[in-house]
């Protein structure tokens, strides 16, 4: 009976984790380039329960009582990197990737240290110095990991499918698009950036660059809402199990014990 309480409790914890992930996805439904996240679950390793120091058993033998399954535990999280819908904006510096790949960003933390991060969010703009930056002010990098600078006074700016920036038909710079052999070596950073972990291997990106477009979130509101209903029902079922077992324990302890 106590095993059942623990199993139901771990089930509730697991469903709460799933609900947290789902609500975070829904909160980012309008975040450009956002990739939805998911949660997994796995069972604890089953253990053999047995008596110890049982005088009724011969010698040092122990008596097995059966298999004890302690319930479920939270597994690893994952990110769905599938491409989201692309929308037109008519803004020259709004960029969307046509396939797998990431824009390279020079990120500066509060201490002034810089590092390279990666994003699918191409909602870029020019700062007062003509440098191409994200909405947070981080610099977009070219193929040489250098900041991209254009002349903001020139309105005849074209960015082609290869990420090349032309002003008055003159090549100014080329936007870096990077991909990785295994996305398991990418870690979510902040709201909409990714950073590499040891073992990440860069490779040529197959993606082209669409100017005047943005990739939206790949979160489906309908799917997430259906999943939330499923999670809520599973949570309620575990809660009812605990309530039922609690009532049974109350009878066993406070009522059956009086019959003796």
Question: TL;DR of this structure?
Answer:
This protein has 260 residues and is α+β, with helices and mostly antiparallel strands.
List the helices and strands and how they pair.
Blueprint (H helix, E strand, L loop, with lengths): L1 H26 L9 E7 L3 E4 L13 E5 L3 E8 L6 E3 L6 E3 L4 E7 L5 E6 L5 E2 L5 E2 L5 E2 L16 E3 L4 E4 L2 E5 L2 E4 L5 E4 L3 E4 L5 E3 L4 E3 L1 E3 L5 H34 L1 H4 L1
Helix pairs in contact: 1-2
What is the number of beta strands?
20
Tell me the structural class: alpha+beta
* Helix/strand order, N-terminal first: HEEEEEEEEEEEEEEEEEEEEHH
Number of separate structural domains: 2
Proportion of strand residues: 25-35%
> What is the first-to-last residue Cα distance?
21 Å
What is the oligomer described by this structure?
single chain
Mean pLDDT metric: 87
Instruction: Please state the overall shape, judged from the principal axes of the Cα atoms.
Output: elongated
Q: Total number of helical segments?
A: 3
In this structure, how is the largest beta sheet organized? 5 strands, antiparallel
Low-confidence stretches: none
Radius of gyration: 28 Å
Question: How much helix is in the residues?
Answer: 10-25%
What does this structure look like?
The chain is an alpha+beta fold. The chain folds into two domains: 2-80 and 228-259, no CATH class; 86-215, no CATH class. Helices cover 25% and strands 32% of the residues. The chain contains three helices and 20 strands. It has helices at 2-27, 221-254, 256-259; strands spanning 37-43, 47-50, 64-68, 72-79, 86-88, 95-97, 102-108, 114-119, 125-126, 132-133, 139-140, 157-159, 164-167, 170-174, 177-180, 186-189, 193-196, 202-204, 209-211, 213-215. The strands form eight sheets. Strands 7, 8, 11, 15 and 18 form a five-stranded antiparallel sheet that branches. The chain has a three-stranded antiparallel sheet with strand order 12-13-14, with no helix packed on it. The protein has a two-stranded antiparallel sheet with strand order 1-4. The longest helix is centred in the last third of the chain and has 34 residues, at 221-254. It is elongated, with a radius of gyration of 28 Å. The two termini are 21 Å apart. The mean pLDDT is 87.
């Amino acid at each position: 009976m106590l095993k059942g309480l623990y199993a139901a409790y771990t089930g509730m914890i697991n469903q709460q984790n799933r609900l947290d992930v789902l609500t975070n996805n829904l909160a980012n439904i309008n975040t450009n380039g956002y990739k939805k996240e998911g949660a997994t679950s796995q069972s604890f390793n089953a253990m053999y329960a047995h008596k110890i120091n049982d005088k009724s058993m011969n010698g040092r033998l122990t008596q097995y009582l059966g298999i004890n399954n302690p319930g479920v535990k939270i597994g690893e999280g994952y990110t769905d990197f599938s491409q989201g819908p692309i929308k037109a904006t008519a803004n020259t510096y709004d960029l969307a990737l046509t396939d797998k790949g990431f824009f390279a960003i020079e990120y500066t933390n509060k201490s002034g240290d810089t590092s390279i991060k990666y994003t699918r969010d191409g909602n870029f703009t020019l700062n007062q110095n003509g440098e191409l930056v994200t909405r947070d002010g981080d610099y977009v990098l070219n193929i040489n990991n250098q900041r991209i600078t254009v002349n903001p006074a020139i309105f005849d700016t074209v960015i082609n499918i290869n990420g090349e920036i032309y002003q008055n038909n003159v090549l100014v710079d080329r936007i870096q698009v990077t991909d990785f052999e295994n996305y398991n070596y990418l870690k979510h950073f902040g709201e909409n950036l990714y950073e590499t972990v040891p073992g990440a291997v860069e490779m040529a990106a197959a993606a082209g660059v669409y100017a005047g477009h943005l990739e939206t979130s790949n979160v489906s509101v309908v799917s997430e809402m259906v999943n939330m209903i499923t999670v809520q029902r599973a949570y309620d079922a575990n809660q009812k199990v605990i309530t039922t077992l609690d009532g049974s324990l109350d009878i066993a302890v406070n009522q059956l014990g009086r019959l003796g």
